Amino acid sequence: MTSAAEQFASNINLASFAKAEELKKRLLFTLGALIVYRLGTFVPIPGIDPIAFSQGFQSQQGGLLGTLNIFAGGAVERMAIFALNIMPYISASIIMQLMAAVIPSLEKIKKEGEQGRRQINQYTRYLTVFLATMQGYFIAVSLQSSPGTVINPGPYFLMTTTVTLVGGVMFLLWLGEQITSRGVGNGVSLIIFAGIVAELPRVAASLLDQGRAGGGIGGGAILVIAALALGLITFVVFIERSQRRILVQYPRRQVGQRMTQGEKSHLPLKINVSGVIPPIFASSLLLLPATAAGAVGDGSPQWLQDLTFLFAPGRPFYIALYAALIIVFTFIYTSVVFNVEDVADNLKKYGGFVQGYRPGARTAEYLDFVLTRLTVIGAMYLTAVCIFPEILKSAYGQAIPVYIGGTSLLIVVSVTLDTVGQIQGHLVAQQYEALIKKSKLRGGRR
């Protein structure tokens, strides 16, 4: 059954949207911020030869650089100031969440409310600067070691390139925070979303050109891929909106001299509690051999070259290990973001209980049992969504663009659902405000 809020939201039409002035301002601000981001992906780093770098990128776009280029909206291909995108911040956030779960001092800070959250965010920013500096310096060294790419190689180029890339990351982090507070949706997620979606028209045009030319992939295969993509999107939307609702009851309470009736509520548990973090973390680990080989350059040892070949996307060993890592990280990250003992304690604190289970330890055991079963389904779902495109790429080789991947699909769908939900929430709030104003006017006339 749908809730009253869902029924109310289903009655929202275009007329209510036209009256929501605050929402329109937020949407325009979000659009303007994303345009600024897209413009930055076309500003190249000073001191490089774009033509020489583009030629080198074409030979490596199926590997590490191509994967990074997905989330950077093509900025890596152009070696723009936003080439690192917001990924150092994502990595720093994951590391801080894992550290907060295993380090007691950080866990204590995390439980201090708003003040603790701000301190954790500050630590995350410091770690972001560190990771961005390391990655920026690695990119600068790789560019300088590529013949003909850097116009004036030397320490000055290494310093300016590193500072430029780190500044680009911190600017995008600030821009994402502005979108979150003054726009619509999660700013960091929308920046990644905009980068992925901006490259989709070019990918579609490339597939159509290949089908027209008859090279690598035929027209019938393109239709099959399009149908499978639509089916996969429908499947992702269905799973992301699915919930397991646990009935929570609250006893009758004495409020003043009046006895309130017992209330019933639901504790919603998503099938995919971990989100897109497990695929991102798994793919990052699998790219380590390619990263090490790129850092060493042409003088890399034979064992490292063999390891890089073994971990190449599309290889059977890569696919099997990718699936295993997704499953492992799904269970680990779910236990980090959803602590069943804390949830059970909060229910006990406010007088709520799950029917048939005593508050406290028994409720935590039941929640853990339900969450484990949901996590099994969620891990299978993430594995299927991420592995299916890899199998497709393995079957068709380089004819399938690297952009067609499970991680990018999950990000696009989840961010779209979240943003649409926030827009709907603004419209619901606007409708309620209008009803309150009407009721006050009627009361004043009486």
Q: Give the ordered list of helices and strands.
A: HHHHHHHHHHHEEEEHHHHHEHH
Order of strands across the biggest sheet?
A: 4-1-5
- Low-confidence parts, pLDDT < 50 over ≥5 residues? 1-9
Name of the CATH superfamily of the largest domain = SecY subunit domain
Mean pLDDT: 79
- Termini separation (Å)? 38 Å
Helical residue percent band: over 70%
* CATH architecture level-2 label of the largest domain: Orthogonal Bundle
What is the overall shape?
globular
Number of domains: 2
What would you report as the Rg, rounded to the nearest angstrom? Answer: 25 Å
Number of helices: 18
Computed structural class: mainly alpha
Main beta sheet: strand number and arrangement? 3 strands, antiparallel
Instruction: Identify the CATH class of the largest domain.
Output: Mainly Alpha
Count of DSSP E strands?
Answer: 5
Q: What does the oligomeric state look like here? A: single chain
Query: How much of the residues is beta strand, in percent?
Result: 5-15%
Within the CATH hierarchy, at the fold level, what is the topology of the largest domain?
A: Preprotein translocase SecY subunit
